[in-house]
Model the fold of this input.
Amino acid sequence: MNVKVAETAGFCFGVQRAVDRVYELIGSDAAPIYTLGPIIHNEEVVSDLEKKGVAVICEKDLGSLKGGTVVIRSHGVGRRVYNTIKKYGLGYVDVTCPFVLKIHKIVERESSRGAHIVIIGDPGHPEVQGICGWCQGPYTVIRNAEDAEKFNISPEKEVCVVSQTTFNYNKFQELVEIIRKKSYDNNV
Done:
């Protein structure tokens, strides 16, 4: 039998970078190590890290930690989470994917200019929740065509559309077209 592995098999570079960084931290001065949510959607990797002493925590757990290092995973987090980590005097390592960081900067900049931010993606996904945390004004999360059809703000309002990085590209294009047809002065 001849087995071929596709070139794109495995983790995206942002996730691989995050996982590698957590493994590098094990046994260092950073201990104890906590990941803010599972570092990856892969039970085997998360389980292996837990066996090596890395604990998965939630934002609400930050106040109960007694030192250590919090790893911000590749999904990223909103500004409030950074402030909470600092408030409790915890160290952190930020392994947010560079593509996600770019989206954070765009929504922060455009929302501070007054644009209504439209985030195309799953509202329950940690990446989308993190993006929402960089909006400085009104925003809308659109998951599907029904949400896009319901989207309704003043046509004079500037709209800036961004997407969850793992969202299906064809579906994204479909939703953008629905929004464009509404004649917003937009940054689509």
Remarks:
- The chain has a mean pLDDT of 91.
- The chain has two domains: 13-96, 99-187.
- The two ends are 48 Å apart (CA to CA).
